[in-house]
Input
Amino acid sequence: MIGTSEQSAAGASQALWSSTIAFTVCFAVWTIFSIIGIGVKDQLGLTETEFGLLVGTPILTGSLSRVLLGVWSDQLGGRRVFAIVMVLAGIATFLTSYADTYTELLIAALGVGIAGGAFSVGVTYVSKFYPKEKQGLALGIFGAGNVGSAVTKFLAPFVMVAMGWQAVAQVWAAAIIIAAVLFLLFTKEDPDQLERAKSGRKGVPMRDQLAVLRNVQVWRFALYYFFVFGAFVALALWLPRYLMGVYHLDVKTAGMLAAFYSVPASLFRIYGGKLSDRYGARSVLYVTFGISVFCTFMLSYPPTTYIIEGVRGPITFRTEMGLIPFLVAIFVLGFFMSLGKAAVFKHIPVYYPNHVGAVGGLVGMIGGLGGFVLPLAFGALNDLTGVWTSCFVLLFVLVSIALTWMHFAVRQMERAAMRRGEAGQVPELPEMQGFGEPGITAPPRRAGPIADWRPEDEDFWKRGGRAVARRNLWISTYCLMLSFALWMVWSVVVARLPAIGFDFTTDQLFWLAALPGLSGATLRIFYAFLVPIFGGRLWTTLSTASLLIPAFGIGYAVQSPETPYLIFIVLALLCGLGGGNFASSMANISFFFPKAEKGNALALNAGLGNLGVSLMQFLVPVVVTMTLFGALGGQSQVAADGTQLWMQNAGFVWIPLIILGSVAAWFGMNDILSAKSSFADQAAIFGRLHTWLMCWLYTGTFGTFIGMSAGFPLLAKLVFPEVNALKYAFIGPLIGALSRAATGWVADKYGGARVSFCVFIVQIAAIVGMISFLDVRSFPGFFAMVLLLFLASGVGNASTFQMVPGIMRREIDRTEPNLPEQQRRAQAERESAAVIGFTSAIAAYGAFYIPKAYGSSIQLTGAADAALWGFLLFYISCAALTWLAYSGPHGVLYALERKPAVPSASTVPA
Output
């Protein structure tokens, strides 16, 4: 059959581009009431609900007609059906200009709606010219005819203002009739129709065509299109009215700005088809639904005025999304919805090549019904609630249901496939499993879980395992770097707040610097166990995307000194989302590499990820001095010395980088199915003494690194006010991160326990030096000791993690001697990953207790010496514990680290 061959049929290009142009004109006619309806509303005094019904009526006709038109296209040929649809729509549109009453307009709108049915006709017609390898892109190009909505939004207001709404109907009617004639002149019948005409056989009867619709999975498949297309149409119709009501724009401006949404939501459908061909439609749908959940949540929040009863009286502040942020959010939403539209229709001609009209018609009908039902619901919600943003609340609920339903369906299909030993054959849309036509095989996914992962197999590793592992490592490292940057951003922001008018006490500022550490450490406890439950790819995507919440929040909060301290506390706690990511990132990467390379991989992931702190402390002081995003970023603040600052850039600068990281994680990372396990399987580590001992030691290394990163900028500013310490703040975290990434081999060669003992001795010396130079008021000496502390902590971060797999292997051998060797090794690796994640969670509390200790010490004694003496005692305890439990003559690792040729099995963490 030509539709599934490797080459496109003759005349494919002419059919594609002619159909796309014709569909663009049809879509422009189909959405004409979104503009002329405004004129009718003013003329007849319609309510919001009546206006919504009028705007949605053409969508109803176009939707309901799609199934029959699709079937007729299969039977009679798409070319002639397409032309008939355009002619009938043109006649109905012309007659609309003579309607005088609301009832007559509703009847006319029913006739105009047939233009929307052209979609299922075009999908059937175009798909028959292309092989399945190219159908995603071809149907994406055809579907870009949605841009006809933008054409109407842009041109119709000018015609209506100049000549009246009746003239718009007449001009648009003439355009679609001309388009029908040109379409017939430049196209020919599709290959299936030509073959049937040559052989004399008839088309498939309608009953047989519609039989495929009995599959409930097809209907669930259509639910996705209800959002990506139905919500698009609804917003395309509703936006002019929304912009006029909320932002008080005139009809011409509202129409042009509505086109700002419609254009990307249409044209990028082409790119969605290309992505679906390359990466798989399911991956595209996951990203579409995930981003849409975030965008609709942001858009659904209404303008709100808060009144907080403070100590010194009521505190009032207001949150409201301005026009420019609204347009940006709508643009992003439209872009990802366009990708989703192409992803949904990618599979119809692949799974149902003989029933494209029926299945495509049903899916298109459900989507089109969304364009009818949702505008009505928008109007009704406005009438019932009186809140403009209620329409986005409805969309938020709708897309959340779609995402949740799809995800659980995917997981169920993957589990069932694993039980059958067919994990690699799960189709990109699991709803379609087993429901294709006879003889049609589902194409394997190019992205997704990996069922067969054997990094210790040298041949497997060289043939492709190493490349996959390294790709996951570098994406994970990038995302982790962003996580650290957002986690520690308060360490710089709080030092600037007093200068731009925020009247916070010293203790309040130290609390803001410490709270991200508290929440981040707490989240790590949970994050440490989530990768084996959800999968590293999905969890990395979601956890990286969650950083958008504090990034946006900081950008808005710092713009007004009237923002209550409570809001800053909440945002500081939300920055802990970045801190939690370390535990899941390290646990995930540990599964990808063989033991011989695992230590270096984890050192790179953690060390370069830690660079996010240094990157932030270098970048933020620079970007807050410039208008990085122009009017989009908001107004500047005037500091006490008269300089202009854009403190919101401390949050906004990360937003595009976070979006890039989330997309890269979803499209570039993998899940290792053999690493999946429940929380109960991992919980055995809580009963092992060494888990808690390693928590203490890792707090001495990583807790120092992250705590000093959070506390040093503000401490230096308070203790040495004559020095601009922010210029140098990034150097310490930079040294700590690089020393961790570069010294993993030291622990491999000499033993993690021995190196860790030396690290704690150096840290003791560094703290003594800090106390001495602080007493003599020498910033150069004090700063040098701080850098020595960072250097030692970086080395210790790698060496303490290097100890874990050796400890756990000996512990499993001791407690489970009856298990086979292979099972003991697998259990040791699983528990090592869990211990690494859990110890990183406990150690992250250093980001809380070190800044808080500095703040409390200064508040109670007027100096930081008391906190430093406390740290000194802690490091002494770490050195003693390391010697007694691990590196000394009676330590667990004493004999192992002194073997002459340590095999790769004792390398760094698992």
User: Anything to note?
Assistant: The radius of gyration is 32 Å. The first helix runs from residue 12 to 30.
